[in-house]
Amino acid sequence: MPDTHRLIKLTTTPEDHRIAQLAAAAIGLSLIDAAIPLPLPGVKPGLANIVTLIVLARYGWVAAAWVSGLRVFAGSLLLGYFLSPGFFMSLTGALFSLLALALARRLPGRWFGPVSWSILAAFAHIGGQLLLARLWLIPHDGLFFLVPFFAVAALVFGIINGLLAARLLAELPATATETENAEVENA
Q: How confident is the model at residue 2 (pLDDT cuts 50, 70, 90)?
């Protein structure tokens, strides 16, 4: 029996490389996030969301969704909780925040930007996680007593991450490709 090996050649685009680099940055920040001890389980700064906000502003929602999705999957593999309840909590939070960002991106840019996007995404993230926890993990209404604590954390970290993203967006010059991508996304 002849031993024939077929080579599969994948062609990548510069956009694929950019998304991979940005996803790697987001994964690194989510690993840092996991190492930060906080008093309430489930409360994290969400540093990787800074990358998502920058990608949303520069490259559009589709690229932000790719970066966020890759971060959730790769981060869960690296941290050892893939397909565990923590993975599904993270995935649900990411999906809800991406849906909120899709809607927020359509709001007038004059009044809405990275800080407001970050706050809306943080509230959507925690809302999605609480909904999943209530439906699946903790089927008791007592869970909702934690809402004020999570809401305060979402507001504080949403503001901080949004301010950091806005600052980085202001300091990092936009390339011609980024400007074209943003114009196509806004059309």
A: low
